[in-house]
Amino acid sequence: MVSVTLAATVPVMANGGGSTGKSDVAVLYLSGTPREMGLQYGAMAKDAIVENIAQFWGWVAERGLSKDALIADALADESLLPLFAVEELKGMAKTSGVPYGELLAFNEFGDDDLQQHACTCFIAAGTGTVDGRAISSKNRDLNNMQVLLLVEPDDGYKFIGMMSAGALGVSQGINEMGVAIGHTWMPVPEYYEAGYSPFLVNQIVMEQSADVSKSIALISELPKAEGATFVLSDPSVAAFVETVPSVINSPDTVWQVLADGVGVHTNHYVMEPFHSWVMDGFGYFWTVSFARYDRGLELIAENPVVDAPKVIEFTRDLENWGCGSPGEVIDAHPEIPEDTWCYGWPGYSICNARTVSASVFCCDDQYPEEMSTMWMAINNPAWSPYVPLHNGILDELPLAGELLSDYVSGYAWSTSSKLRSTGEWGELIPTFEAWEAVKSAENVVNEDAARSLLSDEDVAGACLLLTEADGAIAQDGVALMESLFDSSAEAELLVVPRD
């Protein structure tokens, strides 16, 4: 079954996209009915959606698979989808120009085969952070163009998120209550007819949860189609939540709440009973997951107390980049039965060639609904800068969407992708770090001003200030990437045009 989203999202209509009953101006954020959401999303990220679909069909052709057969299979599964998801995809098809059957196939099969099933996440809380405020992070590893989503549900909390253009759900994000979520894929059998994808679970949590406790309860209650580990944080605590497909076991969820310290998770089960299941041969242990996990533990041992800049460093870590030695990983873990190992693709470093986005979430305990921050790298953090997005911008969505239009359209992601052909791997990181140091200092000044307004109960003024400040930094980030690109180099991906 296809990954699906909740009925929830979109705003204003893009030129030439048909009518949603709203003003005929550029799509900037998402709100409304499922049909409206699809129309708006398709118009907002049309070029990025077209590129992702083209990449998917290229993958299909390279493997000698039948495009027509995959579309037929996806259409046959349509009855498994709730009506709101069908309506959303049909709306997206209309304004993106991608046929409905192709979008169905991309959502059903692209998630399994084109995306690389990886990711690395860190959490920290209490004595593990410089200021006691909880932190979480996610590196997303796959092969699709990412877009920023600014979402105002009809019935639920507003949130900021990132996702593959044309795919339904949310990869990672933070809501207006200061709750952040992401997930990593876990290698167990998948049963799509039995529940929701992790991306949909993420969106439900964004829309319905005001803290980590509620988030864990929701994840536990929802029927789940795949194995995943969810990473959560709110202003007080952080957590890892391991899950298996609901048809496999009840309960299908275990978790670890972290009040103090720093933790890491990759793509193998570490909690019981699921760890023992894999030891007994259900699923497998992945050498690349252990390589990233072991490296994460090393970073934590070296840095037992962290802040956002330090976790950003973690997300850019290149140790074991390329293809590390699976034999060394296996030898380092004699406790793992030999017949449970799997090698997989060469994603041995935390930041690797298939990382396509990253986020570091800092949840504010004093003003969680305005000052909680998503530090966002719209693309691989080795070739894109981090920019701050405070959840207070959700109170200024029209302006936020305008200022962040390069991110919601896919332009920022594709501009960053061109930097892959500029210099050696990781060569640009010092440039980004120097730029981020300057912008972080600006951000401190902006936050101090916003806190002063909030202490005077001027919430509207604080949110406007944060929106303008975050938007300016984000625009400067795009300008930085443009300035670094050698125009004589050939871009590896389609360049999404700027409107």
Please provide a written account of the structure.
With 499 residues, this protein is α+β, with helices and mostly antiparallel strands. It has 3 domains: 30-113, no CATH class; 120-342, Penicillin V Acylase, Chain A; 379-484, no CATH class. 40% of the residues lie in helices and 16% in strands. It has 17 helices and 16 strands. The chain has helices spanning 34-44, 46-62, 67-76, 83-96, 100-113, 198-208, 212-221, 274-279, 287-302, 308-315, 326-331, 368-371, 397-403, 405-409, 411-417, 429-455, 459-484, and strands at residues 30-31, 120-125, 135-141, 146-152, 159-164, 172-175, 180-185, 228-233, 238-243, 253-258, 261-265, 285-286, 341-342, 355-362, 373-377, 387-390. The strands form 3 sheets. Strands 1-4-5-6-7-8-9-10 form an 8-stranded mixed beta sheet, with helices on both faces. A 6-stranded antiparallel beta sheet has the order 11-2-3-14-15-16. Strands 12-13 form a two-stranded parallel ribbon. It is globular. 58% of the residues are buried.
Provide the fold topology.
Layout: E1 30-31, H1 34-44, H2 46-62, H3 67-76, H4 83-96, H5 100-113, E2 120-125, E3 135-141, E4 146-152, E5 159-164, E6 172-175, E7 180-185, H6 198-208, H7 212-221, E8 228-233, E9 238-243, E10 253-258, E11 261-265, H8 274-279, E12 285-286, H9 287-302, H10 308-315, H11 326-331, E13 341-342, E14 355-362, H12 368-371, E15 373-377, E16 387-390, H13 397-403, H14 405-409, H15 411-417, H16 429-455, H17 459-484
Parallel strand pairs: 1-4, 12-13
Antiparallel strand pairs: 2-3, 2-11, 3-14, 4-5, 5-6, 6-7, 7-8, 8-9, 9-10, 14-15, 15-16
Helix pairs in contact: 1-4, 3-5, 6-7, 16-17
